[in-house]
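G., the chain you wanted modeled:
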Amino acid sequence: MAGLGPSGVDEGKGRDEMADQTDNLIELDEPAVHSHTPSGWPIETIELKPDGKAPKHYGPDTYRFGAALTLSVILPRRGWTLVKRTKNYAYLIPPADSLKPPFKITIAVPPAEEFLAIARRSYARGESWRGQLGEWPAWYLHERNKNMQKLTRDPTTGAMVAEVIEEPPESSLAMGEWGVWDMRATARGGRFGFGHLSPDFQAEHGLRTPDSPKPALWEGAPKTVELSVYERNPTARRLCIEHYGPTCQACTLNYEEKYGPIGAQLIHVHHVTPLSTIGEAYEVDPIRDLVPLCATCHHVVHSRDPHYSVEEIRAAIALRRPPGEEG
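Predicted structure as tokens:
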């Protein structure tokens, strides 16, 4: 069976490998290197969304954020306290005058055309680099090997045979960090366009044509996500459902009544106090701490931070019912 795999740099290996490729640093001659508010860069307001509260032993006002590389630097400049930083997240305490979300900062960002101009100037210099532009981390990778290796099995010997498929080298400029603000441009032969695919690659593979100017929409790529999983107690779930019944306590949906046997056991059990805010094991009361909800109401409850209460969801449903109709 044939398969394709890159023989050059694998972008998915992250910034550690990027650092290996840019160890031969150059003195970057860019005005944005020397100022947090470069000339011509507009000041924008950016809302920062935490991943949740940090574990309780870090303090009641400590929040967990992704984009650790960026936020561990720019937030302490704005009065935040950095409690802990790892490769993937940072624990930070906001200033005393803004301890609760939403959190917003003002920061300079480059206009789109200036960002492309920086990419073109970097290409002209002909060397990879990493550093800081304004307040943002940035890195440029020059002419990366994008050759592919095609593996096939010899039908006679059964041995695997490798064939190198040559592709033009690729250059890219990335700035900022996903989860706060980021921008990226990619090129083959110095012709840059926004995104992870160069304009030449898109044209070659029919991903963008004059009749169809919108970019291709991709799904299905594997993605590594680091998250905390909080243990649920199945006995507590059973006792909760035995008390309330397998019926949504907000909209009264009963899965088994609506769908028959295939709907049995599908009711969700909602934690009135989210486990993520508790951050540690605790003794759960199945009646006081848990409540059955259907998937839709459960989703709506969690659509806001802090979460909606079950009473608020009931009230919202009641407002939408025609006069005289009972729940």
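The radius of gyration is 26 Å.

Shout if anything looks off.
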